[in-house]
Design a protein that fits this description.
160 residues; globular; 29% strand; Nucleoside Triphosphate Pyrophosphohydrolase; 4 helices
């Protein structure tokens, strides 16, 4: 189905890789600017780097399994969104939240990546504001400003 057709149809869930980036016990946090395709998330804070799986993601790797395709999408999204030294991703869970219009049409596969250093920069500065690593206590004190998926994950921190 086309993305436009499923963005407002809760009968069809789109799989979204959603990666938390961590460095020395602190988690990458940023605010989404008023740009980008997903207008419903403009201005919201996030701890996840994510995006839609595309046809390109199935062209990498040998097996073409659903697991490989989603992992490829997670790696591609990280490369598109941020400059940071990252090791391999680890899949740590799933997210499903039908409480808001964005979550009602998306299903998250959560990854965790431990950054090899503290330096991180957005690749598209116009899309993000205030990108930095924050500790669990600070994230919890600001949780109300975060998008719903981030709220769920912040309340589960620290992740292993």
């Amino acid at each position: 189905m086309s993305r436009d057709a499923v963005e407002s149809d809760p009968r069809v869930k789109q799989v979204i890789p959603y990666t938390l980036v961590r460095h020395e016990g602190r988690y990458l946090s940023y605010q989404r600017a008023g740009l980008g395709q997903e207008r419903r998330l403009w201005g919201r804070h996030s701890v996840g780097i994510g995006g839609h799986v595309t046809v390109v993601d199935g062209q990498f790797g040998v097996s073409g399994s659903a697991q490989d395709i989603v992992r490829n999408a997670a790696e591609r999204e990280l490369q598109e969104e941020i400059h940071v030294g990252l090791p391999a991703l680890r899949s740590i869970g799933l997210l499903n939240d039908d409480s808001d219009p964005v979550g009602a049409v998306h299903f998250g596969v959560v990854f965790l990546a431990d950054a090899s250093g503290p330096d991180v920069q957005p690749r598209e500065p116009a899309l993000t504001v205030d990108m930095s690593y924050l500790d669990c206590e600070t994230l919890r004190s600001r949780v109300r400003f975060y998008e719903p998926w981030s709220q769920l994950l912040i309340n589960a921190l620290p992740l292993t």
